[in-house]
Design brief:
The chain has 570 residues and is an all-alpha fold. The chain contains 23 helices and 2 strands. Strands 1-2 form a two-stranded antiparallel sheet. The protein is globular, with a radius of gyration of 26 Å.
């Protein structure tokens, strides 16, 4: 009985840490194929539309007044550099594993099923609550744009149910339904609308930059001529402002949600992520430079900083353009928030973590219509009945958790990749050619029963040195000493990655736990920093595993940039 329970426990534990193979490189699922119609421009429009929400129209005033002063643009730059580090991780994994699921997919491949399950549901929570919160934020801005709620149709006006103390928002629910119908129409159609709406939003921001810069030049940039200087709150205030505005960069990960629909994922995904982050960072910095220069930072209205800055300089009519930009930003952000969720549900259903109902793809539109409708109904119900502003903080928690897991996945890919035995380039090319021949001959279902080893063993293909494949040194049984050394190095790397995560957790917890005594916080912070530093030193001294070169799409993002830069420019 005891042995049986031990076996059950062992199997249960293995199921929690089991990792799936990279199924996005060679495997084509019959009946589960999304349409590859998105170019790098389409992906950039999706990313920019999701990232630039209406928050930037309010955030510049709050952060400038409370944290940074005129140094707001520096805070945006620092936050952009921090976001770029995470963007590099996403770009590397997305180009190697271009399947739907984003961080969930990468966690399942590199870490294990239990972490992937946690990340999957965190992202579902993020997309659902985020979409509902954005929809409820559109209705007041829409009413402001038309001159007040009394100008809206009666059935779209917010109503209060006194018996329940609930404020229902029909306008928000209608907007979610419209976005859901648009996403069900097809990925190319929805990306076209997203491009148009995003273009309007970017044009509104360009108007703010050009018109505001012109006014600031006329008035002499009075916002920077202050006795308190460029850093009125010091460097600490500027860094605190960077932590706040970092969340305005959240959204570039939506590009990876559409990875399976990119025409050329190896090229388009890194380009889409890079252009999204670069464009957002430049726009944020230019808007902050102009607005803080128009009026002193302490005179900015925390609710409508951009409109108030223009009104203070005699351009009251500019508030209509700013409001139009805010409304289009929210609409684009709503569509971008609802886009990845059905694809995440589809990916989890493919892996058996959700019912197969969610993995069905429409043969007409080639999008997961059932998952899209289910996600839309849930988001519309939340937007209609609930004020989700109190839950919106959980969106940031889910996003940061996903960013952390993606960064850990990169470390695992570098030092202990899932593909343990690297294949030589000639052998990998031969395997790929055999698989392509099977596909071209209409034997796609037959070749699913063959793995790489079967192809190698049944082949007489000569490789380097003219030796047959079954005599190739990388396929022969390695001697015991080499195997032990390789396993020992992987084990050391994995333990140091674990210590690295523990050090980060302890250090950040000590820095944020203001309720603890100062001595205890200092002790925990020092211990966390020591663990973090030691693990980083050990990882820096270890050689990266050569098997990383054969993981997923071989070469990854940086090799692609080096080899195909001329194709990118074309």
């Amino acid at each position: 009985m005891q042995k049986k329970s031990e076996v059950i426990f062992s199997k249960g534990f293995k199921s929690l840490v089991r990792r799936k193979q990279v199924d996005s490189v060679h495997v084509r699922r019959e009946g589960h194929q999304l349409a590859r119609k998105l170019s790098a421009i389409d992906l950039t429009a999706i990313g920019v539309g999701t990232t630039i929400g209406a928050g930037v129209y309010v955030l510049v005033g709050t952060v400038a007044r409370e944290h940074t002063g005129p140094a707001l643009s520096v805070s945006f730059l620092i936050a952009g550099l921090a976001a770029a580090l995470s963007a590099f991780c996403y770009a590397e994994l997305a180009s190697r594993c271009p399947s739907a699921g984003s961080a969930y997919h990468y966690a399942y491949i590199c870490i294990g099923e239990s972490v992937a399950w946690l990340i999957g549901w965190s992202l579902i929570l993020e997309y659902t609550i985020g979409g509902s919160a954005i929809a409820r934020g559109i209705s007041p801005n829409l009413a402001l744009f038309f001159g007040g709620e009394d100008k809206l149709p009666a059935f779209l006006v917010r109503q209060t149910i006194p018996q329940l103390g609930v404020v229902i928002d029909p306008c928000a629910a209608v907007l979610v339904v419209i976005a859901t119908v648009l996403l069900c129409a097809g990925i190319k159609e929805s990306s076209l609308v997203q491009t148009i709406v995003t273009t309007v939003n970017v044009c509104a921001m360009l108007f703010i930059i050009v018109a505001g810069g012109y006014l600031a030049c006329k008035t002499g940039w009075v916002g920077y001529e202050l006795h308190s200087g460029f850093f009125p709150f010091g460097v600490n205030g500027m860094l605190a402002g960077s932590a706040v505005v970092f969340f305005s960069y959240i959204g570039f990960d939506a590009v990876t949600g559409a990875a399976e629909e990119a025409k050329r994922p190896l090229r388009d995904l890194p380009l889409g992520i890079g252009m999204t982050l670069s464009l957002c960072c430049i726009l944020y910095m230019l808007v902050s430079v102009v607005i803080v220069g128009l009026v002193p930072y302490y005179s900015l209205n925390p609710d409508t900083p951009i409109s108030s800055a223009f009104s203070a300089n005699g351009m009251q009519w500019a508030s209509y353009i700013v409001t139009a930009g805010a409304v289009t930003a929210l609409c684009a952000s709503l569509t971008g928030s609802l886009l990845p969720q059905p694809r995440l549900l589809m990916a989890m259903a493919r892996d058996g973590l959700l019912p197969s109902f969610f993995s069905d793809i429409s043969t007409h539109t080639q999008v997961p219509v059932k998952s899209t409708v289910a996600a839309g109904i849930l988001a519309a119900a939340l937007a209609f009945f609930m004020d989700v502003s109190e839950l919106s903080g959980m969106v940031s928690v889910g996003t940061l958790l996903a960013f952390t897991v993606v960064a850990i996945s990169i470390l695992i890919l570098r030092y202990a990749p899932p593909n343990k035995v690297p294949l030589p380039s000639s052998l990998q090319e031969y395997i790929d050619s055999v698989r392509m021949q099977l596909d071209d001959d209409g034997l796609g279902t037959v070749r699913k029963t063959f793995n790489d080893t079967d192809i190698i063993n049944q082949s007489s293909h000569p490789f380097e040195g003219g030796e047959p494949s079954n005599q190739h040194p990388l396929i022969q049984k390695q001697n015991t000493e080499d195997k032990q050394n390789h396993r020992r190095m992987r084990k050391i790397a994995l333990w140091n990655i674990a210590f690295f995560c523990i050090g980060v957790l302890v250090l950040t917890s000590a820095a944020s736990a203001e309720c603890l005594p100062s001595l205890l916080r200092f002790t925990l912070g020092t211990a966390g920093a020591a663990i973090l530093l030691c693990s980083m030193i050990v990882l820096a001294c270890l050689n990266q595993d050569e098997a990383r070169h054969s993981f997923g799409h071989t070469g990854g993002m940086f090799k692609f940039y080096a080899i195909n830069m001329d194709e990118i420019l074309r």
